[in-house]
Amino acid sequence: MRRKFITAVGVLALSGAALAGCADTASNQGGGSTEEGGSSGAADFPNGPIELVVAWSAGGGTDVMTRAFAQSAEEHLGVPINVVNKPGSSGAVGWGEIAHSTEPDGQTLTIVSPEIGFMEEQGLYDFGLDDFTLITLINQDPAALAVKADAPWDTLEEFLEDARSNPGEISIGNSGPGLAWDLATTAIEMESDTEFTHVPYDGAATAVQAVLGNTLDAMTFSIGEVSAQVEAGEMKVLALAQEDRLDALPDVPTFIEEGYDVDTGTFRGIAGPAGMDPEVVEILNDAFVDMAEEDVFVDVMESNS
């Protein structure tokens, strides 16, 4: 199990690095670019509404961020950007459509995360990184371990001690087998000698409702997925999976400072199907970089981090 986990996280990091490089070298696309620069299609791009596919359910952090992103970006592209949720099979439904059946004309894009870089290797997706054109990195988030505000655990150590005493009895919601937040839960188990019951969800919104409804004990998703509930006093975060504390949550410790080497999270970026025209990629990337300072988008990012 340890080898599989380390391999997956290694690919996750490489996937993040690949997307991060897109902002500087939009025309040098691995797996997803045409070899000859430019085409007549770039001259009139975009020539209609752009569809932006979210492979997760509505209401979660990815969905909220995507809608803010679309609202800001469409002003820079001059066309509507329609967000469409296509959840199912741990992201395979929405991303599979982009990978297998979408024209590479830039009119249909998707929000991607590290899973596109390693799930094929695990036999969970029938597509991989080479089936996409990576365009722009949007953000990076650490994993957060969150519980209901009135849960019996006030500290990470109380939570882990209970888990050690009752193996498998504490349920943790995450994004499904092999996905980023499932791997985060696995990392917690490996570092703390605990065992949890993993419960998959096609988005954080349903996991949040399960925690609030007392049908789920805890959840590991990005901090942005639970920030509204934490601010409202409905949930609390026991620890963050990164090296330093967040300025926005100065009282929340990290796993590392508590003695557990858990430093993991996710990124979100924009991608399209393989074979996109590099000039179209550059048009999109330039627009997305320009809109990164838009108030609508900045406000959402700040309130969800």
Automatic annotation (TrEMBL):
Instruction: Using the record, list the residue span of the signal peptide; answer none if the entry has no such feature.
Output: 1-20
Sequence segments annotated as region (Disordered)? 24-44
Identify the domain of life.
Bacteria
UniProt xrefs under CDD domains: PBP2_Bug_TTT (cd07012)
Q: Which UniProt keywords apply?
A: Signal
Annotated Gly residues bias: 29-40
For this protein, the record's InterPro entries field holds: BUG (IPR005064), Bug_dom1 (IPR042100)
| Protein family membership | Belongs to the UPF0065 (bug) family.
Q: What is this protein called?
A: Tripartite tricarboxylate transporter substrate binding protein
